[in-house]
Amino acid sequence: MSSVQALRDFINERLATAAGEIFSVFEQTIVQYEEEIEHQRKLLEISRKPRIAFHATEGPQRHAGPQKTSSGLQQEEHEAPPLKEEEDLVEVTVTDGERDDSLDSERVNARDWTTQRLTAAAVEIFTLFEETVVQHEEEVDRQRRLLEIIWKTEKKSHRTGNMLLKVKLGDVQKFVRITEPNLHHFLNAAFTKFGVPAASEGVKVVDGSGTEVDDDVFEDVVKDPSTGVLTITYEAERGSAVAFPESRRSSAESPDLNPAVPPGSPSRKRQRLDSQAMLLVESILAAKSAGGYIINEYKRTKSLTDESRRKMVNMLAADMTEKNGTSPARQVKEMYARGIVNLFPNLRDPFSNNGFEHYYDGDSGTGYLAWRIKTIQRCSAKDRRSSFGAEGPPGEDVSGGPAGRRVSHSVPEAVGGDDEFRDAMALMKHSADEDAVRMKMRMTFVRRRAMVLDPQRCGSLLAEFPRFRDVKGLVEQDFALLFGDDVSGRLLDKWPTTFKTKIVQQCRKLPSTHELQELLQAADPPEGGAAADVDLDGWDSDLSSILLLLHLIPPTALGRKRPGKVSASRAETHLVVFKQTGKSIQEHLAAVARGSGPHLLAVGARKNAVHQFFVVVDGTAVPCRSPSPLGAFDELFKTHFVFGTPYDATLHNMYTFVQTTVYNIDVGRVKESPRVVEVRARLLL
């Protein structure tokens, strides 16, 4: 309760109490007056009766004057009672006078008492009000003092120059906080921030225009918003400005190296190599107008569009082949790739060893630069090698994929001999208790994994374990035993919060097509008009975002002798097929080509109103436990590992992205296309 409300309640209470007490006194006084009025009325009635009797006896005597003497004794006898009544009347009159004085006194006392009570109540109310006002004044004064302290502190902080400055030392740029706007304090704070020994001589500070900043103008310069980045440089003994004492030993070496790193150390060599590569790429791009546009685009957006990335790769590959021939050495290609990620740090892949393997991977000979060089080689007719080299297309199984051998995360209690295994299999095939079936499936997990890894027996997995067809959740159980519950739940945890929105944002930058716009509208419907704008025949938001990933990571081209490049819209049918309720599922299963990869079968009234999902694998429809599209896709992905089925060749890049980036399975083991690595670098910024 607030103090104002408490004061209001107290005043009401005190006034009500005083009013009640005053009314009680008034009531008693009025009652006394009413009693006195009644008493006076009775006295009046009594006083009238003797007077009437007296006048009645007196009348005849006035007419019988002569008889007065003779009847004197009788008259005295008769007059005696009236005298007595008159005495009583006198006594009553005296008593009435005393009563009137008493009532007047009581009236005066009531007035005085009422005045005292109201005065006392007013004093109490005013006392409380005064105490409340004093308390509030003290609180206001206390808060005013606190505000003055805070304001003085802030004013002192601003007056002493508490500010953040952008500072560059070598090739490293950081924010440095200073509290005093003088050059000496700034240098000490900067050296501490960069972790290098402090130096008081041979050091100078220049602004973004290259103008040296002296101590006398330092405060004015740092307060100027247009100052930009302050660069700290070291001066040689003869006064020539160089970045550090050990740098500029050759024209090819970088001018910006960290002085805290000892000369000749591996870290120092790598710094020089990174700086050389960055200057090389920057000089090539800056020499062309399109290259300058690419640099400016990165400065604005901290990223590059696909078109800008292609132009950059074409310019660098053309410069590389012009200077080094159509077959540049591996070190040359790595130098260009290293320069790209050092000039544009946000394009670095956080999952690879060097961060530039998606531009050039020397171990596999792949990457954007390698592919562009191969295109140049084919055009010049000097070396006609396939796009994928000798390792085969990405659709083929490689180490680390779904069919790869791996150690299971957990090994449950297994059945013993063959007899116990046969008993467990018999129980599973005929039991109606799904919990018992799940328990026996756990006990036979080891033998089932051996069957999956056996090329001769892997195709008969559903025949040996038919309960996959009717007991939901068995695929997820085997996947959790293989990788653990933490890995098993990553897609459902990460997709809505981490990947979905970013994928939609990246797809909005792609060239617009009708199919792409429909998926974007379904995945991210406009606010306020979702019901009217979203296509009723389209997929729901989650499945649309998964299909958008096919547009962001296009289907793998299969070469000239195969169907060739497949569009993202056509590739959707390799991922999910819709079947309207009431139509035969068996017709679809019969039409599925033998050897085709697993895919989803959605059954419902409309695409965005699916009531049941199935995973079609080996011509069999395995029901999904989850009714949601995202949960069904989660089970589809897990089916590849549980049944040891390779990815569909068309969807290989998309599945590889989900495997390494979402589930973090076999990172570094499985072969990834440069596009997968590039998209990951964009989404994980």
Explain what the structure shows.
The chain has about 675 residues and is α+β, with helices and mostly antiparallel strands. The chain has four domains: about 5-60 and about 70-160; about 165-260, Ubiquitin-like (UB roll); about 265-385, no CATH class; about 490-685, no CATH class. Helices cover about 55% and strands about 10% of the residues. It contains 24 helices and nine strands. Strands 1, 2, 3, 4 and 5 form a five-stranded mixed β-sheet that branches. A four-stranded mixed β-sheet has the order 6-7-8-9. Helix 17 (about 515-525) packs across helix 19 (about 540-550). The longest helix is centred in the N-terminal third of the chain and has 88 residues, at about 70-160. The chain is flat and about 150 Å long. The model is unreliable at about 50-95, about 235-255 and about 380-400 (pLDDT under 50).
Helices and strands in order, then pairings?
Elements: H1 3-63, H2 72-159, E1 163-169, E2 172-178, H3 183-194, E3 203-206, H4 218-222, E4 230-235, E5 241-242, H5 266-286, H6 289-301, H7 306-324, H8 330-343, H9 368-379, H10 418-430, H11 434-443, H12 445-452, H13 461-464, H14 474-483, H15 485-488, H16 490-507, H17 514-523, H18 530-533, H19 541-552, H20 568-575, E6 576-580, H21 585-591, E7 599-606, E8 609-617, E9 620-623, H22 629-643, H23 652-662, H24 674-683
Parallel strand pairs: 1-4, 6-7
Antiparallel strand pairs: 1-2, 3-4, 4-5, 7-8, 8-9
